[in-house]
């Protein structure tokens, strides 16, 4: 998985100015200038390109705990090493498209400013998410919200559905599907075939929100060891072995569901084959 970059606390006005200019100039390159004398080392060592961009996630100075914007980084430059002619071109761009930035500045708050980040496809996320959804590549831990703006961290790239505009809960999505199935079953064969002939072959992507639980891995291991490869309901052998490690495939079922206040304990859990697990949930 590729490394991505999280910028902590960018001024909203800077980002909104880019969004406004981007409306009339889609695909154009814009620039961010983090206030720091420290180089963003991974961008320096492996500069991204248009063909191989790096994903960027951004919080704002007023919302340090939320991922508010995303973009693609397509280049990095050390501002202290930019030749005069290149700086002139950049300043002309700033003057025309990002006038609030004023210029490619070489110092900020009395210290050198080093990083110039070239971005495209800046997006304001319709649904803001906690920065805790970002996982640091250094140690695999979630990013913690900070109280002050500034700095950055390398994070794992989020899935491509992240930031989709349409959002639904898991329950609403299932309810919508069940209602659609009921309506479809009442149609004549001819009417259903007509609808199928006009339907898109690719399903629409939406972002699904649901509540989950951080389950105890020790409970899972103990229950699987207790089952010893046999379903604890029908007592048949597991139907197949896991491709990942060759162990018998059984699924963990909570007798009293976690969503109903059940405990995540060995006593409240069973190892079931897929058929029994589905029957327990959906059978008569």
Automatic annotation (TrEMBL):
One of its GO terms (molecular function) is endonuclease activity. Residues 218-278 form the HNH nuclease domain. CDD domains: HNHc. Residues 181-195 have a biased composition (Basic and acidic residues). Residues 181-204 are annotated as: Disordered. It comes from the Bacteria. Pfam families: HNH. Keywords: Endonuclease, Hydrolase, Nuclease. This is HNH endonuclease. It comes from Fodinibius halophilus.
